[in-house]
Amino acid sequence: MGKRWRIQPHDASLVVQLEKTAGIPSVVAQLLVGRGVVKAATAKEFLEAKLNGLRDPEQLPGLTQAADFLATAIRDRRRIAIYGDYDADGMTATSILVRCIRLLGGNITFFVPNRLSDGYGLNNASLERLAADGVEVVVSVDCGIASLEEALTAKRLAIDLIVTDHHEMRDTLPEAVGIIHPRLPGSNYPFDGLCGAGVAFKLAWGLCQRICGAKKVTPELRQFLLTAIGLAAIGTVADVVPLVDENRLIVRHGLKSLRDQPTAGLKALMEVTKLHQRSSLSSEDIAFMLGPRLNAAGRLGQAPLGVELLLTDEPSRAEFLAEYLHELNANRDTLERSIFLAATKQIKQQFDPENDSALVLAGHGWHAGVIGIVAGRIAERYNRPTVIVSLDKTDSMPGQGSARSACGIALHEVLADCTEHLVGHGGHAAAAGLRIEANKVDDFRRAFCQRVGELVDVRQVVPEVLIDAEAPFSQLTTRVVRQIEMLAPFGAGNPRPTLCATDVQLDGVPKKMGGGDRHLSLRLTHQRTTLRAVAFGKGEWAEELEQIDRLDIAFRPVINDFRGFTKVEIQLVDWRPAQVK
User: Fold this and answer.
1) Whole-model pTM above 0.85?
2) Ramachandran quadrant class, 308 (left: phi over 0; alpha: psi -120 to 50; beta: rest)
3) Is the dihedral of CA 147, 152, 157, 158 positive or negative?
4) Could you give the CA distance from residue 81 to residue 200 in angstroms, rounded to a whole number?
């Protein structure tokens, strides 16, 4: 389905005014105005992104009480366990607090559930095992806010529970000695977008202050916090929370920390991925290189090794774990491609994606750890809410499903309307999980598609590409693109600017690249300026583009700065045959 291009309107007088009052380049002023930043003071604060812009940890709802309790537990040498999550956010959050409490002299261990056998969040069996191991205090990170029954189990086991989380709450809060959450009822914290690692970083900061008895911590603890902000940056980008406000500060300064003072494990991981050869790191390096390798460990049931990589100070062990996670990611990529191919084949054989309101696909033996990624790719390609179900090979156990949204559908509400066909479900508007018996899949598919169709006519919902400005290639000098980079780090809530150019000529034959020919490389010429372009995840465009001579393109300009050689390239976002007048 073709996408509608919408060029962001801008007030030229506001752009000129901001350019003069803030003393910034015109292109930066235009992009800021398009993002709603029109005052010089606000623009200065946004562009400088100073570390002292982070709010004092005491302001985070629930932190004072929880940090006081935990500081006492550290001093008393009580046995403490950090209970994490199996994704990159959970792993980095876990490692931040383990490193912190270890440095403060605490008696610390950690537990990260197995995605495939334990499931998400606190679970009773794991709490039982921790209690048997002598754990007296459990601190959840990136989970726990909805674990009401499990909190009661912890209480029965005489475990003091502290919950740190950022996910959606239920009507009732869990019973715990402390709860830290940006959106606690009755609080008014001005930024609710922190991820699990961001919350953990704030708790670690607060703990360091308490142990020091002052706002200013010792040089050793300051050095730890600067390392920890690098870990928090990985969790922030990988969890796709908005890169605005405190998250933008965490990532801006975390990227510098990762480059200048990485942990032994991250240093090894950056060497495996060749990131150590770059003069600076970007949020995209986390999103496409570091984050996926940590997430691969979690998706394939090896999350503890991901945490160990982040915790180890032993170079040889770090090198081994980095290589192993790199291999796991390659295995994850192979599994993902095979399921994606099988799912798209199923769509062609059994569905009419132009008219079906949603897609519910199921296969025996599809790896449950990667079906969420596949669901996301299919939802994006077809602009339809998509559910992928991994069925047990013998149908003796319920299948596991992952859902991803499109067309503005709130998945958790639709699944609630289909609950009679499910063993269980959970999640939020954009992503959700479910369990289902094999013989219920067809009934669920009908109910799910019918409910989505009642909520929206997906055939009338045309996806949009929001374009910041039109720009000829000749304007995209290294200097101009460096100026655009002043708005970084880019990500959710602060996307890399998208530009457009019309009547562009395709030079030569587009070439597929990457594992499974998933990506595309091509050369484009516009008004006598030629640039290399890459289209990530769009290898299927090759055949169509071979039939096109001239086209209009939407793209993002980037600097390719590798081994001291600098040039401007573009990332192709969308294209259409040239609409020359």
Assistant:
1) yes
2) alpha
3) positive
4) 14
